[in-house]
Each structure stands twice: as C-alpha cells, then as structure tokens.
C-alpha cells in the first residue's frame, strides 16, 4: 500500500512539471524561476532514486522517479535558456 501511495504522490508531482516547463518555455524569461528550488527538487528525486536502488526495489516506481527527474532537468535547461534570453533583452 505504501508503494501505491508513493506512486500516486510521484504521479501528481510529475504531472505538474510538464505544465511548469511549458509555462517557463513560452514565457521566454527566467524571472520568477528559482534555480535553487529546481536544484533542490533534483537532489530530492536523486535521493529517491538512490533509495530505491539501495533497497533493491527497482520496479515501476523507479521509472516514475526517472521520468520526473528528466522533466525537472528539462526545466533547469529552460531556466538557463530563458536567462540567456533575458541577457539579450538588456
């Protein structure tokens, strides 16, 4: 039951990240984005992945962690792109 609840939590978080990436990409500005926040989320997902690997529990939930981590890394890439665009506008 705990893995099911963890999966639901990860899916809910995971669904919000693509929306955020899209919003950040289309806004074309880094204003309002926090690279520190994004890095903390990356560290959290990395810790979750490490915990699953160390426990030997590498089932479906590990895939969800990896998908979420990938989207958050994409959000970080969009941040750097937007920061570069902001510098060009000055």
What's the overall geometry?
Answer: elongated
CATH architectural group: Up-down Bundle
Number of domains: 1
Poorly predicted runs are none
Averaged pLDDT: 93
Which band does the percent of strand residues land in?
A: under 5%
- Helix/strand/pairing class, anyone? mainly alpha
The ordered H/E elements are HHH
Descriptive overview:
This protein has a single domain (2-89), classed as Monooxygenase (Up-down Bundle). The mean pLDDT is 93. It is 86% helix and 0% strand. The longest helix is centred in the C-terminal third of the chain and has 30 residues, at 60-89. With 90 residues, it is mainly α. The chain contains three helices and no strands.
Task: Map the helices and strands.
Layout: H1 2-27, H2 35-55, H3 60-89
Helix pairs in contact: 1-3, 2-3
Based on the model shown, name its key terms.
90 residues; single chain; mainly alpha
How do you describe this structure in short?
This protein is mainly alpha-helical and 90 residues long.
């Amino acid at each position: 039951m705990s893995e099911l609840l963890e999966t639901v939590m990860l899916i809910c978080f995971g669904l919000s990240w693509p929306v955020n990436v899209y919003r950040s990409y289309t806004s074309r500005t880094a204003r309002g984005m926090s690279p520190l926040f994004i890095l903390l989320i990356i560290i959290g997902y990395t810790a979750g992945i490490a915990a699953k690997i160390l426990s030997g529990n590498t089932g479906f939930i590990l895939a969800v962690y990896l998908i979420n981590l990938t989207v958050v890394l994409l959000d970080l890439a969009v941040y750097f792109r937007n920061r570069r665009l902001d510098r060009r506008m000055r």
